[in-house]
Amino acid sequence: MAGGVTGWSHQDDQFDWFSAYLSERGLQMTWRLVTFSFVMVYSAIPIVMLRSPFGPDNRLTTALAVFAAGCGAASALLWLFRWPTRRQSELFCAMATISIAAGCLSLSNPYSGLLGCTVFATIGGFAAYFHTLSTVLTNFAAAVACAAVLAYRLVAHTGDVALTGSSLLTVAALNFGVPFGILSLANVLRNDLRRSDYDALTGLLNRRAFHNSAYEMIMQQAETGSYLVVATIDLDDFKGLNDTQGHAVGDQALVAVSTTLRDNCGPTAVVGRAGGEEFVIADIAAAPKPTESVERIRQAIAATPFKITASIGTASAPVDPAAATASLDVITELIEASDDAMYEAKRAGGNQLKHRQLSTTSMQPEKRTVKR
Predict the structure, then answer these.
(1) If you average pLDDT over residues 307-317, what whole number do you get?
(2) Residue 335 pLDDT > 80, yes or no?
(3) N or C: which end of the chain has fewer CB within 10 A?
(4) Mean pLDDT of the chain
(5) Which residues have CB under 8 Å from 146's CB, separation 6+?
(6) Which of 216, 277, 278, 333 is the catalytic position?
């Protein structure tokens, strides 16, 4: 666990990465429905407790219970229709935390309210999976404050210090052990998965990691009116280079091309090796046709000392970061379209660019040719 603890304070928000991971495996719908159902069930508890002798006993606490139920239900709705954005997920954590606190404090029986503070651990666990240490600590601080108020009320009401102490230990154990255990494990697993994301020869992302990283980039960088641009790059007659100069020289050429791609792409670009002598790039652009930047890459590859050229196909489509569930499908469509454009460039003689733009409705590629 020590390795996980070391990286806590430097851990980035994991929402976009974990969202891509779940989307790739077709699990987002399951997570959405489970999260929505759980939160809705919990949100009903304050309303049910209105009929209990241990529930709210005056107008103020009754209003607090109704507020808790409404706040919880509103947070659940963030998951009903689509996968939320990172900001919406952070809002969900805040609203759910407030709902739990209000629900616990609304109860007239402080012992029931104190044990209810164990539910904070579920939101802490969620925050540990998807967000940062600061989000986990915020939820933990709310749990501590709520438990302290209810513990004071329980001692004042019963005088039973032993009961209060054991209840506090239960609340503390769950609210510390669950979120921070998950945070440690998630950090270690993410680092291990990240290390397996890279191609051993070139140091570029492999095919699976490229999809996930492109998804993250869309969530983080895309704005209304922007385009997701994908370029597929295939080296011309690379087999001839291997046959005449050997595979060692071929490997050196692949490394040189990889360096060239990194040097000539923008800071937000995602660069991967699709396999063999084929590479793929994804980036967010203000215009749909990346002619200038891709032409720069084509010339840079031709300028390497290995006397190789590249056929490049590009494809683009408008992106909407709010449509999170469709983003991986769009990436796949663009890779296929850019791959088709690349083969068109290769059939035309190689060492040139071809472009296709996907429509927003039919997602069918519209051919556009950039002749060289």
Answers:
(1) 92
(2) yes
(3) N
(4) 86
(5) 100, 101, 104, 105, 113, 117, 120
(6) 277
Residue 372 has what pLDDT? 42
What is the rounded distance in angstroms from the CA atom of residue 120 to the CA atom of residue 150?
Answer: 14
Token look-up 């909407």 returns: 320
> What token pair was written down for 19?
């969202």
Beta bridge partners of residue 281, listed in sequence order: 231, 271
**Active-site residue flag, 344:** no
Asked which of 63-72, 123-132, 165-174, 220-229 is least confident by mean pLDDT, the reply is 220-229
| Tokens 């720069």 -> residue | 296
Residues 274 and 280 sit within 8 Å (Cβ to Cβ): yes
Q: Where in the chain is the domain with CATH 3.30.70.270?
A: 207-370
For tokens 């495996």, what's the residue?
Answer: 25
Six token digits for residue 207: 């095919």
Query: How many helices (DSSP H) and strands (DSSP E) are in the chain?
Result: 14, 6
What is the SS3 assignment for 220?
A: helix
Instruction: State the CATH architecture for 207-370.
Output: 2-Layer Sandwich (3.30)
DSSP secondary structure string, 97-136? HHHHHHHHHT-SSHHHHHHHGGGHHHHHHHHHHHS-HHHH
Count of C-beta atoms within a 10 Å radius of residue 235: 22
Q: How far is CA 108 from CA 113, 144, 159, 165, 353, in A?
A: 8, 19, 16, 19, 72
In this structure, what token pair is assigned to residue 252? 């050196």
Helix, strand, coil content of the chain in percent (nearest 5): 65, 10, 25
